[in-house]
Amino acid sequence: MACSTWLHPIPFFISRRTPTVHSNLRRFHRLISASPRLQPPPMEVRAQARRLIAFEKEDEVASPADLSFQEPLKIVEYPDPILRSKNKRIVTFDDNLKKLVEEMFNVMYKTDGIGLSAPQVGINVQLMVFNPVGERGEGEEIVLVNPRVGKYSKKRVVFNEGCLSFPEIYADVERPESVKIDAKDVTGTRFVYSFSELPARVFQHEFDHLQGVLFFDRMTEDVLDGIRSELEALEKKYEDKTGKPSPEKIVTRQGRKAAAAGFGKSRTHEKKASGVAGLIHKE
């Protein structure tokens, strides 16, 4: 593991091969090294937990079968329908979950990522892992289970994002600069924490995955036009591999946008998106 302990309390993928990311990674590494370990604030956690109880009841609960997996895990690429499927809430915190987390980190490091969500390895549950340094034995390994958004900043920034499910594709996405989240760690302990800059960006990207939202859903039409041919190539790759028609076509998505502010459900989940509104507000 990256440090002697997990922060059991972050993930999005930014490739360590992306030139624009290197300076941010070095700067964030210095901040991580100089800062104390994250400690969940118990009083705030209890207050946040009460607000989330009603919303969580709407989530479908993951069964042991939903959390079963075989090693080695493999990255699921666009346009596999797994990436758009509903992800279930985890209620069992056992050795199998810890093993899944460890295997997700293994895949993340092998593929030069700094973050990964469970649906990206074919497991439709609300789980993500993250290490901003992207090197085993360096930085800190963070795990978020059943994350929820509390607040996000009005200030928004543009950043060049990549995604393991979209190999070698990079493009600009605008998102809030900071975000306050509620989640559980790998033992089931609830905590609240605020992220800013790169960690906030990573969280939002991976949180989108857990909502069935992909990073190109958040791009402007001009930016999307720049990678449209690459997305079409992935669609053809899927058709050639499976012998089935692509479950979605980028050519039909022109003008479609995901929910505002970098959060929310994909268009297939719009009816439920209103249920999240009470938990997300600007600062």
From TrEMBL:
High-level lineage = Eukaryota, Viridiplantae, Streptophyta, Embryophyta, Tracheophyta
Name recorded for this polypeptide: Peptide deformylase
Query: From which domain of life does this come?
Result: Eukaryota
**GO BP field:** translation
* Protein family: Belongs to the polypeptide deformylase family.
- Residue spans making up a coiled coil are none
Give residue spans, biased composition: Basic and acidic residues.
Answer: 238-251
Key words of the record: Chloroplast, Hydrolase, Iron, Metal-binding, Plastid, Protein biosynthesis, Transit peptide
Cofactor(s) needed, names only, are: Fe(2+)
| Major site of localization recorded for this protein | plastid
Location relative to the cell: Plastid, Chloroplast
Which reaction equation describes what this protein catalyses?
N-terminal N-formyl-L-methionyl-[peptide] + H2O = N-terminal L-methionyl-[peptide] + formate
What this chain does, per the record? Removes the formyl group from the N-terminal Met of newly synthesized proteins.
* Cellular component aspect of the GO annotation: chloroplast
Mind listing the GO molecular function terms for this protein? Answer: metal ion binding; peptide deformylase activity
Q: Which CDD domains match?
A: Pep_deformylase
Task: Tell me the InterPro entries matching this sequence.
Answer: Peptide_deformylase, Peptide_deformylase_sf
Which EC number(s) are documented for this chain? 3.5.1.88
Q: Where is this region: Disordered?
A: 238-283
